Amino acid sequence: MPTAREYNFDGLVGPSHNYAGLSFGNVASFNNVKSVSNPKQAALQGLAKMRALAQRGFAQAVLPPQLRPDFRLLRSIGFTGSDADVLARAFRDAPAILSSAWSAAPMWSANAATVSPSADTGDGRVHFTVANLNSKLHRSYEHLQTERTLRALFSDARHFAVHQALPGTPAFGDEGAANHTRLCASHGAAGVEMFVYGRVEFNPEAPAPKRFPARQTLEASQAVARLHGLQPQHTVLVAQDPAVIDMGVFHSDVIAVGNGNVLFYHEQAFLDEAGMLAALQRGMASVGAELVPVRVGFAQVSMADAVASYLFNSQLLSKPEGGMALVVPQECRENSRVATYLDGLVASGGPIDELISFDLRQSMRNGGGPACLRLRVVLDEAEAAAMHQGVIMTEALYAELVQWVELHYRDALAPADLADPQLAIEVQTALDALTKILQLPQLYSFQ
Fold this sequence. Notes:
By secondary structure, this protein is α/β, with parallel strands linked by helices. The chain has 16 helices and 15 strands.
C-alpha cells in the first residue's frame, strides 16, 4: 500500500472580500448582509491558519482566489461599454446582480470539487469533479475558473483526472466536497465515500425542506460516483435531514465531518441515522476497517448552538504523531455550552484528543468556517510530486503571501465600493502578481 497524505487546499481570500448576503439558507451570511468587510484581515486570518497547520506537520496548500468582478456574467445579461460603464450601470439598475459578480464565495474551497483518491477509483488516478454550484447565481459561474485552476495544479494525466462540472440543471445540483466525506483505515487504503444529498429530483414524494432550498441532489451524487469509477459496495448515499436544512444547515459539512475511521456528527444530521450507520459499517467492513461514530446529541449541543458556533464545520485531522485534532473556529470556545462539550470530548479518551482553534471571523461572518475553507486531496508520494509545487505552504511562501496581501488589499470594503472601477483594477493587479508568486502563469483569462 503506497504511503499517502491528506493535503488541505485552503482558499486564499481575495482582495474584494465582501458581505453581500447572497446565499439564502446560510444564516450567518444573511445576518451580516451589506456590512463593511476587511479583506486584508480576512486573508491574513486564513494564511495564519494555513501556516500554523503546516508548522504542525499537516500537508497544507493554497487554492488561488478567482477574478472578481465577473464581467463575463455582467456582459452576458446586457451591460455594455467600458468596465467602468458596466459597473456603474449594474450598480444603478441591478445592484443584487452586481453583488453576485463580486461574490467572495470562491474562498470556500470545499465547494470547488468532489475528490476521490486513487485508492478508491476505477483507474487508479485521483479524480476531481468540479462542482457546478448551480443553485445560486453568484456561484454558478465559479466552475469555469475552478476547472482551469485544478487543471493547472493537477496537469499530469498519468495521475489525475479533472472532470468538468455536471450539467447546470436543477436535477444535477452539485455542491462539491461540502456534501461528501471519506472514511478509511488510513489515507492510502481503500475507503468508503459518503455522499449526502438534500433532495431527489425525480422523486417528488421524497422528503425535502420547506423553508430553505436543498442544494445537493441524489442524482448529482450518483453521477460523481460513476465518473470516479467508485465501487458500489464502497459508496454510501445518505439523505440529509430536511428539518436541519430549514434550520440553516445548507451543506452537510455544517453538521458532520469525517476523517480516517471517525465520523463526528449531530444526531439530527441525517434523515435515517440508523440506516446511515449500518451502511457505513458494512462499507467499512468491506475495506477491512471499523467505523468509530462520535455522536453529539441535542442534550449536549442544540442545533442552534451547532449552527451559531459552526462546531461541525471543523477540520478533523490525523496528527503526524498519532491521534486526531479538531480544528474549530474561535466561536466554539466563546460559546460556553459548546466549549463545555468540547472540553469533555477531548477528556473522554476517544479518538479526538486535541482542539486547535483559530480566529476566522471574517470568513465566519460570511457563512463559512474551517471546513468550508479547504478542499481535501489525498495524494501518495508519486502524486504529490506530480502536482504543481508552487502552492504548497512553506515559511517562505507564507512570508511572500503576507507581503502581497499587505501591498494589495484594502482594510475596509463597503457595499458602495463595488461600483468603484479602481477596485476592479486593484484586484486584477493583485492576482497578476499572485500568479508570479505561485508560479502559475496564465492562470486567469486576462493574462
